[in-house]
């Protein structure tokens, strides 16, 4: 009896069809070599090939199994989705818990990515919207609403508020726009700050001030919770234990999901983390700091170390904090406001003259660098602002870059900088480094024995 006849006989009798290997064993017509080398072929596979011999069936079945295995291997999990986006040109898959739902009327900006903030599970767009210029006195409510709607339609899901820059008006106006637009609470992320200032009546970072500030922000925003509460500047007069315990209480009450810091030194961040571990409190997940072509040391040397050691992410601001400067030739160049830091004046007129000459020389060098950056941007087909944005996003430690705008057109121009990222090759980045000539270098460690 052949293998095909054995399978057909079992089907006619209404019993469970047996494999060809079992049929061969039952009739005692196979050898030990056949049993060891021939796999069991399903009956459905035999039934579809009635005119094939036994050897042809075995070969065809082995080939089909090999093809199925190759297809399975091609569908294996991929370690990084970001690398696949560079080839497909599509936006990042947000997984089972997306930060922004997919909308039919929205077109995600090319180059926009979603990353985990710090080592938390919170996914934010690599470009966030800073609201301090949006709610400035020169911007109307209609213009502010147009900017926010463009940001949401472009895929931006993070809005940063700062009491230090725009006061309480930003929270009030943003709350009204959110209620009017009817956006789902799960589709956007709000970050607001607890500002410590010596000029304010409610100064310091006491437990009282922190809790009252968070409750007041919730009322102005008309929200039940804030995603991230940032402590703006550290208070040297307040114990760190009181600060971390107050932030842990705010999170435990459900008023905030996470907390972070803004303009803190690495030593202060590490002290807060140590206190959180000691008193079993929630640790900060992000540090917000200035970062652009002329301010690099903290962001490139110390914050990556904070991320690797304690999981604190990096939210950058600064590429658009520029001012126009006039050169002797009548050209207008973009220069960062914080580039020229005035030194403290002394009581000696000779030292003042030396400092003045040093500042003038520094100003001339800065103008030369800005001019060269502008010329390079023209060669790349963009302006200096767009090149500054793309350069900041090119650096891996930057998980979210905050952009500001006073009009929808300005925000649209800034978002076009995302398309420059593939064009910033290694040669272009090296050329920028040559022009800037300010790459930060960690100072060599000094041995205590050498100091002795």
What does this structure look like?
InterPro entries: K_chnl_volt-dep_bsu_KCNAB, K_chnl_volt-dep_bsu_KCNAB-rel, NAD(P)_OxRdtase_dom_sf, NADP_OxRdtase_dom. It holds the Pfam family Aldo_ket_red. Its main location: cytoplasm. By secondary structure, the protein is α/β, with parallel strands linked by helices. It has a domain of 235 residues: TIM Barrel (Alpha-Beta Barrel). Helix content is 46%, strand content 13%. Strands 3-4-5-6-7-8-9-12 form an 8-stranded parallel barrel, surrounded by 5 helices. Strands 1-2 form a two-stranded antiparallel sheet. It has a two-stranded antiparallel sheet with strand order 10-11. Strand 3, helix 7 and strand 4 form a beta-alpha-beta unit.
Percent strand equals 5-15%
Rounded to the nearest angstrom, the radius of gyration is 32 Å
Q: Segments where pLDDT lies below 50 for 5+ residues?
A: 2-39, 71-106, 322-332, 337-351
For the record, the CATH class of one domain is: Alpha Beta
Question: What's the end-to-end separation, in Å?
Answer: 97 Å
Quick tags:
452 residues, alpha/beta, TIM Barrel, 8-stranded parallel β-barrel, two-stranded antiparallel ribbon, 18 helices, 46% helix, globular, disordered N terminus
């Amino acid at each position: 009896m052949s293998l095909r006849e054995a399978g057909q006989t079992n089907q006619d009798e209404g019993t469970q069809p047996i494999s060809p290997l079992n049929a061969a064993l039952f009739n005692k017509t196979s050898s030990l070599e056949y049993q060891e080398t021939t796999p069991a072929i399903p009956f459905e596979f035999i039934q579809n090939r009635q005119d094939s011999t036994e050897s042809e069936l075995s070969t065809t079945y082995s080939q089909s199994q090999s093809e199925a295995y190759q297809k399975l291997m091609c569908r294996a999990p991929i370690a990084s989705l970001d690398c696949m986006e560079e080839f497909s040109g599509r936006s990042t898959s947000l997984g089972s818990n997306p930060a922004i739902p997919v909308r039919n009327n929205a077109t995600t900006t090319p180059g926009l990515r979603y990353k985990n903030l710090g080592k938390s599970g919170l996914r934010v767009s690599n470009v966030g919207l800073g609201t301090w210029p949006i709610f400035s006195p020169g911007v109307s409510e209609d213009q502010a609403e147009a900017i926010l709607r463009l940001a949401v339609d472009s895929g931006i899901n993070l809005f940063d508020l700062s009491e230090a820059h725009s006061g309480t008006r930003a929270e009030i106006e943003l709350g009204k726009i959110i209620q009017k637009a009817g956006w789902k609470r799960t589709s956007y992320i709000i970050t607001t700050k607890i500002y410590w200032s010596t000029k304010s009546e409610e100064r310091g970072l006491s437990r009282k001030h922190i809790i009252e500030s968070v409750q007041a922000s919730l009322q102005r925003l008309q929200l039940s919770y804030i995603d991230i509460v940032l402590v703006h500047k550290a208070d040297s007069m307040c114990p760190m234990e009181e600060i971390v315990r107050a932030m842990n209480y705010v999170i435990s009450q459900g008023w905030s999901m996470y907390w972070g810091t803004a303009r803190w030194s690495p030593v202060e961040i590490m002290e807060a983390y140590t206190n959180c571990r000691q008193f079993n409190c929630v640790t900060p997940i992000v540090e917000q700091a200035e970062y652009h072509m002329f301010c690099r040391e903290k962001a490139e040397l110390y914050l990556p170390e904070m991320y690797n050691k304690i999981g604190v992410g990096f939210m950058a601001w600064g590429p658009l904090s520029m001012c126009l400067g006039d050169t002797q030739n009548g050209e207008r160049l973009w220069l960062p406001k914080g580039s020229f830091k005035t030194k403290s004046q002394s009581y000696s007129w000779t030292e003042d003259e030396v400092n003045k000459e040093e500042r003038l020389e520094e100003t001339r060098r800065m103008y030369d660098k800005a001019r060269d950056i502008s010329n390079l941007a023209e060669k790349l087909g963009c302006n200096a602002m767009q090149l500054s944005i793309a350069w900041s996003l090119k650096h891996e430690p930057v998980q979210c870059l905050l952009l500001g705008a006073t009009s929808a057109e300005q925000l649209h121009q800034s978002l076009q900088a995302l398309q420059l990222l593939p064009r910033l090759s290694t040669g272009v980045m090296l050329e920028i480094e040559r022009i800037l000539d300010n790459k930060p270098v960690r100072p060599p460690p000094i041995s205590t024995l050498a100091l002795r």
